[in-house]
Amino acid sequence: MLASFLITFREGLEAFLIVGIILSYLNKLQATKYNKFIYLGVLFGILSSLVIAYVFQVVIYDIEDENYKHYMMIGILMFATVVLSYMVIWMANQSKNIKGEIEQNLTNLVTAGNIAGMVFLAFLAVIREGFESVLFFSSLSFAENMTMEEGLIGAVLGLVLSIALVYALMRGAKNIPLKSFFKYTGLLILIIAGGLFGSAVSMMQASELLPTIVPMVYDISFVLDDRSVFGTFLRALFGYNSSPTLLHLLAWATYMVTALFLWKRTYAK
Fold first, then answer.
1. Residue 168 and residue 166: Cα distance in Å, rounded?
2. 239: which residues sit within 8 A by CB, 6+ positions away?
3. Cα-flanking dihedrals φ and ψ of residue 144, to 5°?
4. Are the beta carbons of 235 and 218 closer than 8 angstroms?
5. pLDDT confidence of 7, banded at 50, 70, 90?
6. In the chain, which residue ranges form alpha helices assigned H by DSSP?
7. Are 217 and 244 in contact (CB under 8 A)?
8. How far apart are CA 216 and CA 214, in angstroms?
9. What is the pLDDT of residues 164-175, one digit of tens each?
10. Is the dihedral of CA 259, 137, 75, 142 positive or negative?
């Protein structure tokens, strides 16, 4: 539940912060009559995210062929790793000018009276983060057997807190450090994505799609077992493994070194 809470809290912050910027700028333009269309876009984004979640969680779980389901889980873990990693790097490039771009686009939309464009602008902000959240939930549930009830409780709490925090920020802060926000929350996403990649490698080894080579590099379960309460949390969120295989460890380390290099280089520009 804590993992799902952290995920939706982070993704909710990102989505609602952008929506908050849109609403604040509409107020600055004295065009608050368009607020209802922004809310409509947010609603469409949330509903679309729920539909995507239904497809991932219900349709896939209804597959009866266990081998096919296992391969599907591996595919989703790999897909989630690629998409989430790409989104972090993409947002790193966009965050430098995101506030100015949003305001410029909104100015053009208000000037033209483009209501559909305003709805789509808010929809895009929510659906992007909603899709990331669905990928996280699906991947975590497949890798760690997180129940839908546990995920839902944590998700709702995370969303509520993110909305409350964004509201407080927009009411009390004139300049929100978007670059720093996206930088460090993006780092968290990369670390989680590394864990998902490691889980995919473990699944491929279990199904003999990849060789095991060395079954256990080390065993620190006497210090922190990945099946303990805290160990399970670390495994679900960051891919912690107290007794990894050589290939699992090498795959995870290679991903993290590459991802951190790209992350650091992107924000150094």
1. 5
2. 192, 194, 195, 196, 197, 198, 199, 252
3. -125, 5
4. no
5. confident
6. 2-28, 35-54, 60-61, 66-94, 98-112, 115-144, 148-172, 178-206, 229-238, 246-268
7. yes
8. 6
9. 887 777 776 556
10. positive
H or E segment and range at residue 114: none
Tell me what the pLDDT averaged over the chain comes to: 82
What letter represents residue 80's amino acid?
A
Residue type, 34: Y
How far from 71 is each of 47, 67, 204, 212, 247, CA to CA, in Å? 28, 6, 8, 18, 19
The radius of gyration of the chain from alpha carbons, rounded to an integer in Å, stands at 20
Two structure tokens written together for 9: 């809290």
d(CA 5, CA 237): 11
What's the CA gap between 64 and 166, in Å, rounded?
43
Tell me which amino acid residue 163 is: I
For residue 76, the one-letter residue type is I
Q: What is the pTM of this model?
A: 0.76
**What does the angle CA 78 – CA 14 – CA 18 come to, to the nearest 5 degrees?**
130
Spatial contact of 4 and 151, defined as CB atoms under 8 Å apart? yes
Return d(Cα 242, Cα 211) in angstroms, integer.
Answer: 20
Phi, psi of 218 (to 5 degrees): -155, 170
